[in-house]
Specification:
The protein is α+β, with helices and mostly antiparallel strands and 439 residues long. It has 10 helices and 16 strands.
Length: 439
């Protein structure tokens, strides 16, 4: 068996032979002929094989050093090492997200070297599954990435979040099954004065099961050969793009997810209240009466925590919206910078206005939303990020594709809007209020 030094020397010798062909072509002012190109390809194949072997040998050498050190120099055991008796040191982890992506790329190539750190990366999550075509991103990178994805969005950080454990792919929660408070509370409780010696009437709350099952969301990213050679550039380019794109998509799910293979969005939830337009209202307009009616349908307990979300093309409507008072009027919307207002996007009824791309265009349902995500929407997440690569998709363009996979689910806490104690079925209330189309 060749030593590491011998392997390095052989690689050096082969690369020198390849360089000699290039030098000859340069001296003769010509391109390599077919025979020379074939020789160079054969050389590079040999070099790749030697480098793969070299990677394995160097890795083995490092592991022997680790296992040969006294136990007190090792870090504490991982939460679940599955009985193999090997504890993982900090040096056995990837130093950066870019470094791990480079290792995933190498592992995805035919006969490519699989860095053992890919197996160590997600210890404790019970999800290291290269047999399924991918590797979880190292746990410290993974949790940071997922938090960055959530924080990048405007809606996800405001939702009620539940983290599902590593050994589960879903969660069941109890929720109140309540559609009306006209005669009972919480779906079945009755409270009334008890006359002397009168028999009590039994009552109990009614519950429903909220089931959240993790659903996959995937993102693809094409990488050039030059970018793959630089782990620092790889991280600086992939990380922000990946985080931003997934954060944007999660917010889109929360607004308009279908619930089929993806989270259920508020626009498709039975809990949504859609307020009708005014009689004779012109198309593609927003009136003060619309906003007043929407505000009146929010749960009283959410009036101080709900916020407005609008498509940016509603802004001209907001600036001209007013309530008639005598021969004049007073503005309804307080724009940013107003001395009475500190909300970055302005405010309506003292609540912040947030322009977001996920709202529908002006005049269609969902162009303006009054919502309390903190009390009304639950987002379940696994927290792990899996990555895998393929060299085949863009082979002719000298590119590889890397795929990232996250798993999450979400839905409104209530299955339907609520008929209040007094007000009737025409004044249902909810955590999520929109305006009917005006097209």
């Amino acid at each position: 068996m060749k030593t590491i030094t011998q392997l390095k020397e052989e690689v050096k010798s082969l690369m020198a032979a390849s360089s000699k062909i290039d030098a000859t072509c340069v001296a003769e002012n010509r391109s390599p002929n077919d025979s020379e190109l074939q020789v160079k390809n054969d050389i590079l194949d040999q070099v790749q094989a030697l480098r793969n072997e070299l990677d394995v040998r160097e890795r083995e050498e490092r592991m022997m050093v680790v296992l040969g050190k006294p136990a007190e120099t090792l870090t504490k055991p991982a939460p679940d090492n599955k009985g193999h008796g090997i504890t993982i040191k900090d040096k056995e982890k990837f130093g950066s997200f870019g470094e791990q992506i480079s290792a995933v790329i190498s592992a995805g190539r035919p006969n490519g070297h699989i860095d053992p750190r890919l197996f160590n990366a997600a210890t404790g999550l019970n999800e290291t599954t290269p047999s399924e075509g991918g590797f979880l991103v190292q746990q410290d990178f993974s949790s940071t990435l997922f938090e960055e994805m959530i924080e990048t969005g405007m809606l996800a950080p405001k939702c009620r979040r539940v983290t599902i454990s590593g050994n589960s792919n879903g969660i069941k929660l109890n929720g109140v099954d309540e559609t009306s408070r006209e005669s009972t509370l919480y779906g079945g409780i009755q409270v009334y004065p008890k006359a002397e010696a009168a028999a009590a009437t039994a009552s109990k709350p009614k519950f429903r099961e909220i089931e959240l099952n993790l659903k996959k969301t995937m993102g693809l990213c094409y990488l050039t050969e030059e970018l793959m050679q630089d782990s620092v550039a790889l991280e600086s380019w992939i990380r922000p793009a990946f985080v931003s794109a997934f954060g944007f998509k999660i917010d889109d799910y929360i607004i308009r997810g279908t619930g089929a293979g993806q989270p259920l969005g508020i626009l498709n939830s039975g809990a949504l209240v859609s307020v009708g337009k005014e009689t004779g209202q012109a198309k593609e307009t927003l009136l003060a009466e619309n906003v007043i009616n929407m505000y009146s349908r929010m749960f009283a307990g959410s009036l101080n925590s709900a916020e407005w979300y609008i498509n940016q093309n509603l802004i001209p409507q907001l600036f001209t919206m007013s309530i008639a008072v005598g021969t004049g009027g007073v503005p309804v919307y307080l724009p940013p910078g107003n001395t009475l207002n500190n909300a970055p996007g302005g405010s309506l009824f003292g609540r912040p206005v947030n322009p977001i791309e996920h709202c529908s265009t002006l005049g269609t349902q969902g162009d303006i939303i009054f919502a309390d995500f903190s009390k009304g929407y639950i987002l379940a997440e696994k927290g792990g990020v899996r990555s895998e690569t393929s060299i085949h998709v863009q082979f002719l363009y000298d590119e590889e594709v890397i795929k990232f996979v996250i798993r999450l689910d979400g839905q409104t806490l209530r299955a339907s809007a609520l008929v209040p104690y007094k007000g009737g079925s025409g004044s249902t209330q909810s955590h999520f209020i929109v305006l009917d189309s005006r097209t």
